[in-house]
Write a structure and sequence with these properties.
By secondary structure, the protein is of the alpha/beta class. The chain has 28 helices and 29 strands. An eight-stranded mixed beta sheet has the order 7-6-8-9-10-14-15-16, sandwiched between helices. Strands 23, 24, 25, 26, 27 and 28 form a six-stranded mixed beta sheet that branches. It is elongated and about 145 Å long. The C terminus is likely disordered.
């Protein structure tokens, strides 16, 4: 039994070995049935990113074919190590010519990719990079370059939104002087310009810079006023930068630092002391949506990393590398790449080798590229979708480094802008900091940095002040006879000092005089302001008028004093020269209307008094004279005729009231005309000056010259400039025909100190031309503008403080108060329309009442007695009867007693 059992055991073992052998051969046979797709991989395997990416790629291949076991193709990797651009180029040529790869994954950096891309174009082999993110590498211009990552240009808008959210108006770019670092700078500058954020300086740091050189550049930044820094560089250089910045005291209160994903993606791989030096720094990194698959992958990664001595932390580049392999494997399967015979590849490439400098040309590159561009799937990093040859940009996390940890304080998306969460909402696009969790800033403070401070180098702010001869109220310069020190004073200077006292911080400054020379065309106010753009002055303080043209190269504060442009001309005295001036107070239509109403009123009174009053009776010519005389005599209340009828008295009450108003208005208007006529301007308006071709003047070096030529369209040859009020006086007195000018155009704040000395000779006339007043000028984008403007409001709204300044420099009268440039015109009918309507209505009603009573009393008897007569005969008889004196009316004598005992009541009733 022992021998038989022994033989049985041998038989079982033999059969087992045979089964294992057959199974291994079967698997090998199945494996050999797969079509291998040669893919090159160019990485720096001596770097942590290269090691991490290679591991992720190996895991991706294993995971993909474990999931897609039925696929007929399989990627076969051919790896090459490269540490520089030249090595990457040689590696790519070796892979294309010797390994006959269908695609190359890599290289690792943007500089290396720049060399390899051109090789891929010639060989028609897709160059697929998950880490060359510089936007200077264009996927649209290089048809065989595919970026399976978000390019750095996509970070520009979220960074600009972040800077705007905290109200910073200027920033400094600190970047790596490589293809990677330089690529983002123009995109950031363009985006900042869209948000009206000024880039005050750009600081590039090369990879081989020593610590001393980096510290030197940091010190140069520290002495400037800007305190907002945007850092774009790789993690290795960024680590050195922040360690040195902390040493220099620049990671402290008042500073703001923002890092791009070149550093933020690598935070987990940085040493502890480096993270500690970045306390309070803000950063952005692409958002990776959470998923179960991603969580499982991270667990597997930790398991692998725990078994390796040189393990690195997983970051976004590893996820992009993983998704790249999946996309490439899908594309290879999609076009059946392995079915293409390698012999065909060789034959085709041999035919083209000489023409393309020894590089083989792939027949499958175009189809593989096109298939890869159409691949879409859910990857570890999110949705994999290529747009214009690169990964579609989605959302970004905004992080704040606190206690050596990256804390998420918000998100940015192209649709919503800044937000606290990724939950769907209907909120419109916003860049408000209220949408973010309040961060901790450098220095451990929660107070938002202002973004700028006064330079700490002890350098004073250079402020230019305009000095001109003859006009010293606003600014003047004196020299101390003992110390020879220049002393600046004046209204603008003192107001500026009052404004500085309102600021919450001190501004060390130095006032530098700038002479405004009437004989030198390069010594004007515009030239003074342009010195700011040339950075020779940091600001300009004085009687600077705010204009649109000047705002193209400087920023103005709010105005501290209003001043428009006015025209000054000679006074023309022509009193008594117009012998018909007495007719001017009333317009012709008012004269005509008044005369007609006079005659109508006289006619109504005559009708009412004719039958009962002897003074309104007599021959026809005398009655016509009575009608006219009575109405016009009421103008001076000189009428002698007595009126008896109560209706007449009612008409006269209204009429005398109208006459009183007319005469008083006429007297006032005539007096006004006689007074104003004495102050009539010699020139009415600008049109008259242009029409006559007269010369006009302005202050030398003034912006008014631009107004005269551009807005008022004066010929430049007709302009003359002067510097003092004495020159103004002489020019206006001589006139345009005698070598002077017919008018002076200048700002009101200048004319206020010229006219009071010549009130009897000159006057302002015509419209004023609007300006925005006087203000202070600063460089465009200067944060001081907002602070100075608020301080100006505080000073100008303090009436007591402004009155003190004005009394100090502008004592006494500053204008000719008894002058006027306009006078009221002739009075017209509309002015008295209501009065005429009342008096005509009263007269008409009285006349109608009298006529109705007369007809009622006299028409029926005529109709009874003369029934056979015609209508017009009766009317004629009625008119004859009207012309007769009423016999029943007792003549009224004012000398008689008002009580007549002999008279019957019927007699007095007949009066009415």
């Amino acid at each position: 039994m022992g021998n038989s059992g022994y033989r049985l055991l041998h038989l079982i073992c033999f059969l087992g070995f045979q089964f294992v052998f057959l199974a291994a051969n079967g698997a090998r046979a199945i494996e050999e049935m797969k079509n291998l797709v040669n893919v090159g991989l160019v990485l720096d395997f001596n770097s942590s990113i290269g090691v991490m990416s290679n591991t992720c790629i190996s895991m991706a291949i294993s995971d993909f074919y474990a999931t897609h076991s039925s696929y007929k193709t399989r990627l076969s990797l051919h790896t090459r190590n490269s540490q520089d651009a030249v090595g990457a180029a040689f590696a790519a040529m070796d892979l294309i010519n010797n390994e006959e790869v269908n695609a190359i994954v890599g290289p690792q950096t943007s500089m290396q990719a720049n060399f390899v891309i051109s090789l891929g174009e010639k060989a028609q082999v897709p160059i697929i990079s998950f880490s060359a993110t510089s936007p200077s590498l264009s996927t649209t211009e290089n048809k065989f370059f595919i970026r399976t990552a978000q390019d750095d240009g996509s970070q520009a808008e979220p960074i600009a939104s972040l800077v705007q959210a905290y109200g910073w108006q200027e920033a400094v770019f600190v970047y790596e002087d490589t293809e990677y670092g330089n690529g983002l700078v123009p995109y950031l500058a363009d985006e900042f310009q869209q948000f009206n954020i000024r880039v005050t300086s750009k600081c590039s740091i090369s990879l081989d810079s020593s610590d001393f050189e980096i510290l030197k550049k940091l010190n140069q930044l520290m002495v400037r006023e800007t305190r907002v820094f945007v850092v774009h560089m790789t993690a290795s250089l960024g680590s050195r930068l922040f360690l040195l910045a902390k040493e220099a005291g620049m990671i402290s209160e008042g500073y703001a630092w923002i890092i791009t994903d070149g550093i933020s993606n690598m935070l987990d791989s940085m040493e502890e002391n480096v993270i500690d030096s970045m306390e309070g720094v803000l950063g952005i990194r692409p958002y990776v949506p959470p998923s179960r698959r991603f969580n499982n992958f991270k667990l597997r990664w930790k398991s692998i990393a725990s078994q390796s001595k040189n393990a690195t932390k997983l970051n976004l580049l590893g996820l992009w590398a993983y998704d790249t392999v999946w996309a490439l494997a899908m594309a290879a399967e999609g076009i059946g790449l392995g079915e293409v015979s390698s012999d065909v590849f060789k034959q085709n490439s041999c035919r083209n080798a000489a023409h393309l400098s020894g590089l083989r040309v792939s027949d499958t590159g175009v189809s593989l590229r096109d298939m890869l561009l159409d691949i879409k799937f859910k990857g570890l990093s999110g949705d994999f979708s290529l747009v214009n040859g690169q990964l579609k940009s989605t959302a970004f996390k905004i992080i704040n480094i606190v206690r050596k940890q990256a804390r998420v304080i918000g998100y940015w998306t192209p649709e919503k802008g800044l937000s606290r969460s990724q939950k769907p909402s209907k909120v419109a696009y916003t860049t408000s900091m209220d949408e973010l969790i309040p961060p901790v800033w450098p220095g451990g403070t929660k107070s938002i940095p202002k973004g700028w401070v006064m330079p700490v180098s002890g350098k004073k702010m250079r402020i230019g002040v305009p000095i001109r001869a003859g006009l010293t109220k606003y600014l003047r310069m004196e020299v101390d006879p003992y110390t020879k020190e220049r002393i600046i004073s004046g209204f603008s200077h003192d107001l500026f000092l009052a404004v500085l006292n309102e600021l919450p911080f001190a501004i060390p400054h130095q006032l530098i005089p700038f002479s405004i020379d009437s004989q030198n065309s390069s010594k004007t106010y515009d030239d003074l302001l342009y010195q700011i753009k040339l950075r020779r002055f940091d600001a300009v303080v004085g009687d600077i008028t705010i204009t649109a043209d000047r705002s193209h190269y400087v920023d103005f504060t709010l105005p501290y004093y209003e001043s428009n442009v006015a025209m000054v001309v000679k006074i023309k005295d022509d009193q008594g020269k117009n012998m018909w001036i007495f007719l001017k107070p009333l317009s012709w239509d008012l004269w005509l209307t008044t005369g007609l109403v006079f005659i109508f009123t006289g006619l109504v009174v005559w009708v009412l008094e004719h039958r009962i009053n002897d003074e309104f009776r007599g021959p026809p010519d005398q009655q016509v004279g009575t009608i006219c005389w009575f109405s016009f005599s009421t103008l001076v209340f000189a009428h002698r005729e007595k009126v008896i009828n109560n209706l007449s008295r009612f008409v006269l009450i209204i009429w005398i009231f109208v006459v009183l108003i007319l005469t008083q208005s006429y007297t006032a208007s005539l007096a006004s005309m006689l007074t104003v006529q004495r102050l009539r301007p010699a020139v009415a308006d600008v049109d008259e000056l242009r029409r006559n071709g007269d010369f006009v003047g302005h202050l030398a070096g003034s912006y008014v010259k631009e107004i005269l030529t551009k807005r008022l369209h004066f010929d430049p040859s007709k302009l003359r400039h002067y510097s003092t009020r004495e020159e103004f006086d002489e020019a206006l007195t001589r006139g345009s025909q005698s070598g002077g000018v017919s008018a002076i155009f200048e700002a009101e704040h200048i004319l206020q100190h010229f006219l009071p000395h010549y009130c009897s000779k000159f006057m302002t006339t015509g419209p004023t031309y609007k300006t925005d007043g006087l203000g202070f000028a600063f460089p465009q984008g200067s944060p001081l503008v907002a602070f100075i403007s608020r301080a100006i409001l505080n000073v100008t709204e303090d009436k007591k403080k402004m009155d003190v300044l004005k009394r100090k420099y502008f004592p006494g009268k500053s204008a000719c108060h008894d002058q006027t440039t306009t006078f009221s015109g002739s009075l017209n009918v509309q002015s008295f329309g209501g009065l005429f309507i009342i008096t005509v209505a009263a007269s008409s009603c009285s006349l109608l009442a009298y006529v109705l009573r007369f007809l009622y009393s006299n028409w029926p008897p005529l109709q009874t007695r003369h029934q056979e007569r015609s209508f017009w005969s009766r009317v004629s008889e009625l008119a004859t009867h009207f012309d007769q004196k009423d016999p029943s009316i007792h003549s009224y004598d004012r000398s008689e007693s008002r009580i007549h005992s002999e008279s019957s009541p019927q007699e007095f009733r007949n009066i009415v």
